[in-house]
Amino acid sequence: EAQVTQNPRYLITVTGKKLTVTCSQNMNHEYMSWYRQDPGLGLRQIYYSMNVEVTDKGDVPEGYKVSRKEKRNFPLILESPSPNQTSLYFCASSLTGNTEAFFGQGTRLTVV
Amino acid sequence: QQQVKQSPQSLIVQKGGISIINCAYENTAFDYFPWYQQFPGKGPALLIAIRPDVSEKKEGRFTISFNKSAKQFSLHIMDSQPGDSATYFCAANQAGTALIFGKGTTLSVSS
User: Fold this and answer.
1) Element containing residue B74 per DSSP (H, E)
2) pLDDT tens by residue, A66-81
3) With an 8 Å Cβ cutoff, are B44 and A103 in contact?
């Protein structure tokens, strides 16, 4: 089954404790991206990657890091999480940057 | 210039009615305009998309109308059903750049 898999689905952590949210896709897509979804603000792109070893900032990259060492994986790293990073995070992949994007199930992160 | 403005924020429609959600954009280089549907607890899923070489695209009860000169596009849901109750997002981008989403419209279809 074609899918984008994120882990974990839920995470509660404390301020400053480094964490990684994993994302994997099995569709051989070139393009992957991370979004955060906050009430009233819609989906805002954090980082995106057009191919292996190629990443670029989206609208809200501050406080986040990404890497794309393999085509299928695109982890999101929070080196020192803060409460304002409490949000619902989605990973997505698509064949190119402007074709259908497939989203994961989301990761609800709470930073206390 | 990168914004996509979506309205209304929320919408209540009776079963069988027409739901209309509007979006406006500024960047004339945008060439891909998708609509996503999101149910609670799920990730967004592509509903329908259009490119600027056509003015309308229809898939079942869902239609996108696109007005290039006005830089606007809209989603029409005909014969709205309770199962259509969800949050809808418009988006836009050009190849190689970030997909910009509107802030979303919460649709409730009453039976």
Assistant:
1) strand B72-77
2) 999 999 999 999 999 9
3) yes
